[in-house]
Amino acid sequence: MVKIAVLGYGTVGSGVVEVIGRNCADRLEVKYILDLRDFPGDPYEDRVVHDFNIILNDAEISVVCEVMGGVGAAYQFTKQALEAGKSVCTSNKELVAGHGTELLALAAAHGCHYLFEASVGGGIPLIRTINTSLASERIQAVTGILNGTTNYILSRMEREQADYAMVLKQAQELGYAERNPDADVEGHDACRKIAILSALMTGRKVDPEKIYTEGITGITLADFQFASMRQRKIKLLAMCSVQEDGKLSVLVAPFLLPGDHPLAGVNDVFNGVLITGNTLGDVMFHGRGAGKLPTASAVVADVLDCAGSQGRPVPGGWSDKEVEYAAEAETDRRFFVRARLSARREVEAAFPGGSAFGVGEIPSCEGEFGYFTAVMKEKNFEERYRKLGDAVLNRIRLA
Amino acid sequence: MVKIAVLGYGTVGSGVVEVIGRNCADRLEVKYILDLRDFPGDPYEDRVVHDFNIILNDAEISVVCEVMGGVGAAYQFTKQALEAGKSVCTSNKELVAGHGTELLALAAAHGCHYLFEASVGGGIPLIRTINTSLASERIQAVTGILNGTTNYILSRMEREQADYAMVLKQAQELGYAERNPDADVEGHDACRKIAILSALMTGRKVDPEKIYTEGITGITLADFQFASMRQRKIKLLAMCSVQEDGKLSVLVAPFLLPGDHPLAGVNDVFNGVLITGNTLGDVMFHGRGAGKLPTASAVVADVLDCAGSQGRPVPGGWSDKEVEYAAEAETDRRFFVRARLSARREVEAAFPGGSAFGVGEIPSCEGEFGYFTAVMKEKNFEERYRKLGDAVLNRIRLA
Q1: Which one, of B208, B185, B205, lies nearest residue B195 by Cα?
Q2: Residue contact B283–A287, C-beta within 8 A
Q3: I want to staple A256 with a disulfide (CB 3.0 to 4.6 A). Which of A200, A232, B110, B358 is the partner?
Q4: CB pairs below 8 Å between A and B: how many?
Q5: For residues B352-376, b (16+ Cβ closer than 10 Å) or e, as one string?
Q6: Do B24 and A136 touch (CB under 8 A)?
Q7: What share of chain B in percent tops pLDDT 90?
Q8: What letter does residue B399 receive in the DSSP assignment?
Q9: CA-based nearest residue in chain A for residue B133
């Protein structure tokens, strides 16, 4: 029986305790739950402690689940646990993306593990899959819908032909979006996740601060209306790929996807991830990317991996050498532009070789039209787009 | 550097050699290739041997890839290798489904591994995922499109409104179906695969001979035409689920799927698998279920797992205690029936509470109609269906 401690008895923490109780009571025992609060009447109230040192000093504890979130106490406790040779399993993507390099090295130095399956894609098995099942592959690209909140908002905007602000408000009321939704809607959450996946893919450190990140706050109902005229969906994609020169291209941004794109059917709070290997081709994973029990299930799978490792290294991780980033400005892409009909000639002149559509076909968008550009470099597009000023209303990349 | 031997230099065997050469030359060395033939001019011709004993007696060989297929020599060589303490990685689903119980026990007894990621779903990481990432779950059900050949045939019949016989012939010409296509089209291949997955899911032996298996040879264009009137696809599903009484329900059969079913979008030679966990909910995997390099990639991932295991057991496998099977006859289902319009009254009387559709709406099916039954037990359905004799033309289960 492996004895563990759970740091944080919130949503994920109580999920971890529940998953162990339901599925792994024969293999794992929750000896401590660290929380600032007491939980009178809770079946586990006798396990609750307020002092991390009790856990740190208990030689019986070999694995700690850090499900507190944040990068303050969570960071300190994780460091201390690893230094004491206790493995740490976490769902804390902010900590992994921000300090994973240091924490992985610390774990290796102390013969224990720092595992974070739950930090990306909730219960979808992604990280262990990249580290083990795809160990025989050169992974060339990862493209994912990695944030359930924004996917829920975009799905509802499309399905109900509703405004961003209205859908966000309802998502907040339903608990699908936080009161301060910035981390989700501005793309930061997806950015941390793709930073983790691209570091695993390349074996090198990836700094989330260096990833071009654009959220969904600028997406309007009109954009959906034009997109659907061309059988396209709008999704917030996080994507990374290794270029021929070995540099990493990585960004988070909304994209217009063809309706038959494998990720086009990933709706609502679901996540989907497409991994492209050099001999495997594409393989796709689809499931609940968040939620108490799916996330907890992934944390507990990591705990079982630690328990079974018997001191042997668990594959995965990355070095402290930072990846080289490709310049987004040099990337070739096509763009969707929504513009004023009165400026059609200027738009067509600015982006030659593209195609206009939707002229006069959407009653609520009278006086506007849609335009798909030809392939061009990001920097050239942005420069010309900026010059068009008020003539253009929005632009979204095409996938 | 781990030294390995490859048994069989056919499609998968040459793929294994290629994947190692391209992606793992720093970790793995192919020391021997066993084949009856010689390969003059092949870059690996000097590794080719004809006598398995050379491999068996070479203490440097710790891992053997059995990619010969069949259950004759492949079975003997696998047993001998495991008895000599050499791990075996295979794509041979027939051998795993038929003799896996014995071979897993043999591996355990000799401190080595018998791994078979490539035996189900080609390059889609399924088996290791069930054994590790989902180790914290009680897996309740697995539903999959596990045979690429039949999925290709069904996809083309629907898309091109073509006859089964014509599409099969073209699939054979293209190499997507074998000259003797029975193993695929009669469902035996999918049966072996679901036997393997259900054994892993339950931890118990599952005999493929005891799995109700129905192929696609009876599916006609008319069935597709009626199905599409109700926005349904026809797919050959392999499915297993653990019932409340602990018994295993398992079968292979064509099903009519709603268009929004997660597996409805899995087309052509692709495979898709939906796994339902008790706390995770549904997670879906989608990718190339066959093919030289995807299959080889999965074999090589197993080899890397063996190489990294350092004598520690790799999770997975099942005991020699056989699962208890639920009686298919007692299963509750709904059915699609295609019948002669002249017998509409008898059909409606035989299956009360259902709904007729498509009457006179499909020009090429004049004189026929479609019918969806209410929920009923398989045995009751079959009895009444049989009694209807010539009045009914086909029946397919509804998912």
Answers
A1: B208
A2: yes
A3: A232
A4: 165
A5: eebeeebeeebeebeebbbbbbeeb
A6: yes
A7: 96
A8: -
A9: A301
Closest Cα in chain B to A135: B301
Q: Do A286 and B287 touch (CB under 8 A)?
A: no
Express each pLDDT in B199-215 by its tens digit.
999 999 999 999 999 99
| pLDDT tens track for B245-273 | 999 999 999 999 999 899 999 999 999 99
CA dihedral sign of residues B97, B99, B101, B104 = negative
The residue in chain B having the minimum alpha-carbon distance to the alpha carbon of residue A271 is: B283
pLDDT digits (tens, 9 = 90+) for A251-310: 999 999 999 899 999 999 999 999 999 999 999 999 998 899 999 999 999 999 999 887
What whole-number distance in Å separates Cα of residue A326 and Cα of residue A217? 26
CA distances to A210, B12, B87, B127, B304 from B7, rounded to whole Å, are 47, 10, 13, 22, 17
List the single residue in B129, B286, B297 with the smallest CB-CB distance to A280.
B297
Q: Nearest CA to CA, how far is A258 from chain B (Å)?
A: 14
**pLDDT in the model for residue B43:** 96
Both tokens of residue B266?
Answer: 């899995």
ipTM attached to this prediction: 0.93
Q: Which residues of B178-202 are buried (b: 16+ CB within 10 A; e: fewer)?
A: eeebebbbbbbbbbbbbbbbbbbbb
Taking contacts as CB-CB distances below 8 angstroms, the residues of chain A near B291 are: 281
Tokens of A51: 């002092």
Is B67 in contact with B92 (CB distance < 8 Å)? yes
Element (DSSP H or E) covering residue A30: strand A28-34
User: Are A288 and B288 within 8 A, CB to CB?
Assistant: no
Taking CA atoms, A353 is separated from A146, A335, A348, A377, B154, in Å, by 33, 12, 8, 14, 40
Q: Locate tokens 């898309």: which residue?
A: B159
> pLDDT per residue over B225-245, tens digit each?
999 999 999 999 999 999 999
Q: Secondary structure of chain B: what % helix, strand, coil (to 5)?
A: 40, 25, 35
Beta-bridged to residue A34, according to DSSP, are A7, A49
> What per-residue string of b and e applies to A135-160 under the rule 16 or more CB within 10 Å gives b?
bbbbbebbbbbbbbbbbbbbbbbbee
- Residues of chain A neighbouring B135 (CB-CB closer than 8 A): 301, 304-305
Residue A349 in tokens = 């002149």
Locus of tokens 């998912």: B399
What's the pLDDT tens digit per position in A300-318? Answer: 999 999 998 877 888 999 9
Distance (Å, whole) CA A66 – CA A73: 10
Q: Active site residue: B31, B86, B93, B193, which one?
A: B193
Residue B245 to chain A, least CA–CA distance (Å): 17
- The residue in chain A having the minimum alpha-carbon distance to the alpha carbon of residue B136 is A301
